[in-house]
Amino acid sequence: MKILWLKSDLLHPVDRGGKIRTYQMLKHLKRDHQITYLALTTSDDTREAFDRADEYCHKLITVPWKETAKFSPKFYCDLMMNLGSSLPYAIQKYRSPAMRGAIDRELSENQYDIVVSDFLVPSINLPQSHVPSVLFQHNVESMIWQRHYETANNKAKKGYFYGQWRKMVRYEREACRRFDCVIAVSDVDRELFRNQFKLAEVHDVPTGVDTAFFQPMTASKDPFGLVFTGSMDWLPNEDAIVYFAEQILPQIAAEIPQVNLTVVGRKPTSRLKALAETNPRIKVTGRVEDIRPFMAAASAYVVPMRIGGGTRIKIYEAMSMAMPLISTSVGAEGLPLRNTEEVLIEDEPSAFAQAVIRILKDKEFARRIGEKARQVVCERFGWQHAANKFAEICQRVAKKQVQALAA
Fold it and tell me: Contact, 169 vs 177, CB < 8 A?
């Protein structure tokens, strides 16, 4: 197949769950299919981001774009202006006539079998076309905003999140219906799309993990150390750490005073930095070149998420390193994992705290959980399997469209 892949950014550094999933998927698809990658770029993109694009595509097309800095005066002005828009801000800010024009030109000048919108964002710039199209949905975006609304305590934030949620529901429903097919990343998300948006052509592909890269490591472990990894400028991750610090960590510390948490990931917010400055049990690293040593040095991996959608690649990475893992239901959502077998799942703060305490105190139980987790991901969740299934779905969609045109 010849695939036009649309994205809001370049993939390097591959330091976020969505980037990891796309990078691995495209790297495997590139072996058998012709990939053109068309994306927005900013002045923050490094030379490496351009130079290494050939790892996942045969042809790169970039469109310059400028993002408003978060928490700047213009950012808050844009949020206020968005109150009068029918589009959610997370979609509106990516509207780019230049990207729309680049897509239109590429489709007019070249013959593609299928167009893939990677995430919902690029769909705002996709012109009408006879070329079959697939929306690759890493999350149910409207559900994320619903959970922001449901967990917000501040009245102003709650009101804002409610408006964004309702706008996202409308946009996501309409966008999904414009595509010939929607591909989700779990059977849970697939059924949500099918039922909530009444989609007939919706499938799911499994999340994978690079089991050769994420292997158990021989390292000196902190017997009281916990770790969390992720993009720390993403609101669901920030919420998870604040929630853990305020409602769970004190309960663990009451029984294990030496407990500590290392938060590893790019662009920590000022709120998280302040949290680390005032709480000696918490360390925030910011971006690191390799997350594995930080994971290997901890005795357990925690995923205390209350907001989110799709599937958490971070969970499979921790499992692949044979780490005992404690998660909320939201954190492990969409992953075919068994509670108390490959992972411990608890939603109430006290129960989550007790699960962490059990892992830190019962080393044999922790070892068994970790080994079982590693076994499961090695047997069932390689990226080649995910890429093959993705390609099969795209080929069926393209063939169906050709047959429809010929009829």
Answer: no
Do 22 and 163 share a domain, yes or no? yes
First-to-final CA distance of the chain: 22
Kindly give the pairing relationship between strand 59-64 and strand 344-345.
unpaired
Q: How confident is the model at residue 313 (pLDDT cuts 50, 70, 90)?
A: confident
Same domain, 257 and 317: yes
- pLDDT tens-digit readout, 226-248: 999 999 998 899 999 999 999 99
Considering the domain architecture, whether residues 25 and 42 belong to the same structural domain is answered as yes
Domain assignment of residue 48, yes or no: yes
Strands 114-118 and 133-136: parallel
Evaluate whether residue 219 is within a structural domain. no
Residues 324 and 391 in one domain: no
With residue 35 as reference, give the H or E element that holds it.
Answer: strand 34-41
Enclosing H/E stretch for 150: helix 141-151
322, 400: one domain: no
- The span from the CA of 63 to the CA of 26, in Å, is 20
Place of tokens 């893992």: 325
In a domain, 111, yes or no: yes
| Residue 342 neighbours by CB distance under 10 Å | 23
Q: How does residue 309 score in pLDDT terms, banded at 50, 70 and 90?
A: low
Cα(59)–Cα(39) distance, rounded to whole angstroms? 11
- What digits encode the pLDDT tens for the residues 252-300? 999 999 999 999 999 999 999 999 999 999 999 999 999 999 999 999 9
The total domain count for the chain is 2
Q: Are residues 236 and 183 in the same domain?
A: no
**Amino acid (one-letter) located at 217:** M
Task: Look at the alpha carbons of 380, 385, 387, 388 in this order and tell me if their dihedral is positive or negative.
Answer: negative
Q: Which of 375, 311, 302, 73 minimizes the C-alpha distance to 183?
A: 311
- What is the per-residue pLDDT for 337? 86
Question: Do residues 48 and 232 lie in contact, with contact meaning Cβ atoms separated by under 8 Å?
Answer: no
**CA separation for the pair 391, 204 (Å, rounded):** 12
Neighbours of 200 (CB within 10 A): 8
Residue 200 belongs to some domain of the structure: yes
* Four-CA torsion 271, 277, 281, 285, nearest 10 degrees: 70
Structural domain range at position 128: 2-208+383-406
Best CA proximity match to 173, nearest among 195, 147, 148: 195
